[in-house]
Predict the structure.
Amino acid sequence: MEDKYYEALKKVRDGYYDEVDKDLWNDKNFVLEAVKNRGYALKYASEELRADREVVLEAVKDYGYALKYASEELQNDREVVLEAVKSDGEALGWASEELQNDREVVLEAVRNTGEAFAFASEELKNDRKTVLEAVKIDGVALDWTSEELQNDREIVLEAVRDCGLVLNSASEELQNDKEVVLEAVRNRGCGLEFAGEELQNDREVVLEAVKSDGCALEFAGEELQNDREIVLEAVRKDDWALEYASEKLRNNKNFLKEVEEIKAIKEKMRPYRNMSEEELQERIAQNENKIRNNDMTLKRYSLILRIEEQEEKIREQEKIIREQEERIQALGLDKNQGGRDAQ
């Protein structure tokens, strides 16, 4: 029996569920082990075991979406559903209507993914307190709230701070609110696509957008696509942004020279982009150590060179002294000769 279990569990782990002996799907011990390895295996369990709380709990812990295959009774079991949405927020779609209206369960699902809010009850989608909490957890939840709350400035501000692209779901009024749009593009530059036309032509807004994502330049007004500073800022963030610059700038040799200089700097920095903070700190420490060693070496060389300069000066002085002594001797004016002449 153990060999039979082992072979069957291996098939489960490898995803060959259909090759498992059908009788084993009625065996609780086997199914428990199977769902611990692959929660999806619950789909193949017998109807009786799909209604077994212990089995289903193990399944949804591993694979939240396995809630789909649980009995209706267990889809209405609060603990089971909580475990499921912790593993996969969208498992909320298979929870009972009662639990889709449970604030704690819904927010737990949103913590896993904002998309889960799509399965919340209409009551919760219209509940300001719940929606505000949801968008603080994951701004994407704004996509599934009521139109009324998509026009709520506080809610939308919280949402775009977490995910700038949900500006798409904000009301037209808020898509034309400069503060809201600035928050959105600082988070995701391409949120500029969903801003009102006036703000797509606002220099401050566009500059913030391209600092976040160079390709946000695509959604800027034509005049700003011809703005040298904005386009260069966009290129610093993403080389492809040049594609969205005005034709006038793309044909300007001096401008293109500046672009190439920026690309050269970015290329030089490329090796450091994928380094973790720990690796960067280690590199800094290594460089500081090299600098200290080089400083010590330079100081030593400086002293050696100073000694060499002093000795060179001494040699020059001694040479001059010798030359002067030779001249004096040649003239017969050495110190001893001078004394005899005086007598």
About this structure: Residues 277-330 form the longest helix (54 residues). The chain has 19 helices and no strands. The two ends are 135 Å apart (CA to CA).
